Amino acid sequence: MKNLLYRLLAFSFLFLALIAFKGDDDPFNAILKKLVAYSTKYPHEKLYLHLDKPYYAVGDDVWFKAYATNSNAKGLSLISKIVYVELIDEKDSLKIQLKLPLMNGVSWGNIKIADTLAEGNYRIRAYTNYMRNFGTDFFYDKTIKIGNSISNKVFTKTSYKFSKENNLNNVDATIHFEDKNGLPYRENEISYEIQFDDKTKTAGKSKTDLDGNAEVHFTKNHANTQGYILTTLNLPNRNKVVKSIPIRATSNQVDVQFLPESGVLLEDLPQRIAVKAVNSSGRGEDVVGVILDGNGKVVNTFQTSHLGMGSFITNVQPNQAYTALIKFKDGSEKEFKFPETQKIGHALAVDETDAETLKLKILSSANAVNGEEVKLVVQQNGSIAHVIKAKITKQLVVTSLGRDKLSPGINQITLFSGDNQPIAERLIFSKQQTDQFKIDLNIDSVASGKKNKSVFNFRALADDKPAVGSFSISIANTTKLKADENNESNIFSNLLLSSDLAGYIEEPNYYFLNNDAKTNRDLDNLMLTQGWSRFVWKDVINDVFPNITYVPEYSSIISGQIKKGNKPVVGGKVLLMAKESKGFVLDTVTDATGRFRFQNLLFKDSTKFIVQARTKDNDKKVTIILDRIPNQIVTKNKNAADVEVNVNEVLMQYIKANDTFFDEMRRLGLMDKGIKLNEVTIEGKKSLAPNSSNYNGAGVADYVLPGDKIKGCATWGCVWRQLPGVLVGKLDSPVLIRGQFGSSTLKGAAMLYVVDGIYPGTLDGLIPADIESVELLKTVALTTIYGMQGSGGVIVITTRKGMSTKYQAEGVISVNPKGITISKTFYSPQYDKPKELDINDTRSTVYWNPEVITDENGKGRFEFYNANEPGDYRMIMEGIDVSGHLARKVYTYSVK
Predict the structure, then answer these.
(1) pLDDT single digits (tens) 285-302
(2) How far apart, in Å, do the first and last CA atoms of the chain sit?
(3) Domain of 800?
(4) Which pTM does this prediction carry?
(5) pLDDT 10s digits, 242-276
(6) Is 406 a residue whose pLDDT tops 60?
(7) Domain boundary, last residue among 809, 837, 856
(8) Helix residue spans in 763-858 (DSSP H)
(9) Pairing mode, if any, of strands 140-147 and 82-88?
(10) How many C-beta atoms lie closer than 10 Å to residue 121's C-beta?
(11) In 3D, which of 288, 292, 301 has the Cα closest to residue 329?
(12) How far apart, in whole angstroms, are the C-alpha atoms of residue 667 and residue 94?
């Protein structure tokens, strides 16, 4: 075996020609042209969010800046003009969705964490409508922890023990219950449910002991299912507190995989084998092991080096069945099957030991050395860096590739057979150009005193030239916020690494904190073991293209089709009116298929519109069919391994410190109204028509008749007689009295019915007992929004629980599309103003600014006042320039 290895390594380098792909007569050139066309037609957008801090508490704002990049343009994306940012709870339920404008590829905003949210693990997910075409694996999706001490009375800490019996996984959970001050809840009854896949599998009761601990036991026949323990703690005075506790694993099982470099394992050739060991909670676990041949002889030893990943070189001999014997950290051992081998074929290997060049090796089995011409393609997102052709006349073909030819981030090297089929593939990561963007920071004016003004001047340089770019700045007091550097948000690790890889990546920022040999070996092991699905060659070769269902959004659009019967209305007249803005009216006509479209709309969220349609002969008996873009579904959390079982315990120091800050904000009247502290009671006047669809606003009427006053009415005439200024006409129809409220009212004109936002034209089938409220609109100021058909007065009827859903509108429909979210401005005290000097400023995020721009000389500046607490203040600056260079600068200074 050694002699063969020496012979292979002794082969001199073959002459390999770098080729340009031109010439229509070469089938392989046609494939390369397909790749260029594919990547040009289907560019990928990526999204990264710079968050102001690593974790949060109820009452906080999540401040963020979004950076959208284009894989083809190598810079900020101009594909989409709208970005969605969502907060998702640990049960994969959407809690908050923001719709924000993307301005030249950047946007910013905030998510208010109200006290309606329980403590737990949440996800921040971001995407554009266009990104939905390529799958949720490539959305920005980060798990964050949110603690709660404002409205929380019960804090839990849970530990798990696992055992196995009769192929069942036994789980013993010990749950500790205590109050905010650490005092245990003693001898309290609890009930619990064990839930998997949102279904209760087991239920029971327990009781806390004198230390506040309760025991819960259950079994599970699958070790890799994650779920929840839903506990209800019974407190005095019949109070009950429900807590949801994550189950991250149900066993100590560790899965071990062996992955040949480039995906092919050939007999009798030295090849690198990657190892990946993952425990049942989804995190990497380091192991040691040996490789045994069919006779039980040890032929190799290995151990993982970082987060359960490692690699080793072995030579698999013909007619041998290999196994791996793995030893775990608890001392137990288990055998795993080794990958199957191929007797004939080619494999690819990359040697990254040299700092300046890569060695690319083509390995071939002896019976595959037949002189056929193979090809190597090095590319990133369709941008080809290198194409090499070589004839296989020996078992080892070696060439070198300068690292400067690679693009920053993941590069894909693919080996093609003589008949132009992809047969082996290898990912490599290039850090070579990630340091081209530099930030020169001037710290001469950084203050070290509390409430003193700090001024930062900086200069951005890309390739040693001034860089015009967009930057975001966060500064936090690390006394309160302990940074988890391996796992915090990082513009490099996201846009260059995790946005191109499928599946969970543990501690992605670890690979960018250092540029030493060990870190780079660990990064290469990640490339050998992580799933890749951003680009598949076979799809390009076979003309299998993405199904572009979701077009890039440039603005909000309201569109649809008008029909009369089953036929489209051609040349129909369509009006779009905003309910809150009486001057906002747009009109258009339908095309030959009856379709209409209002585009380039920008309006704030919760804006309500009315779409009114008529035929060209003013017939209102038409049907309006609005286009509906289905909402993006919430998929399972791919980063479930980041879920923390004991969130409040981990964040206790932080959330207690936040209480002091919230008390100060309340004293100053700056506390957000959505946060209700325990001692604050908010009372408001109850609306008589809380669920009304009145276009002027619920309850904004000349008169409101509540439902409890018409319960005894058997006829509609009984209802109308209770409305001032209204007479009962024929067939119990209401008529507004002429002249009583201005000359615009018409005697004898039928009043307009609006039932739950639609215009039924008749009340047949609806009875007064179904009514929650009736609003009377008589004055011109209130009826104008309903157009001419409301000139005789409008009666707005709201039914109980939507009883009117059986009615169909005639020519009018109400629509409430998702609008642009209006973001807040970060509160930053100005201590040169006397009125703010008495603030006890204990903010954890001392400063946040998403709008820092450098000038043509690459210069930028930001300033702020330090908070009123000492500590180490950690600044993180991130950004991107117009050429797509990424920047990140971390600086820490002390405040005394």
Answers:
(1) 999 999 999 899 999 999
(2) 66
(3) 703-809
(4) 0.82
(5) 999 999 998 889 999 999 999 999 999 999 999 99
(6) yes
(7) 809
(8) 780-783
(9) unpaired
(10) 21
(11) 288
(12) 33
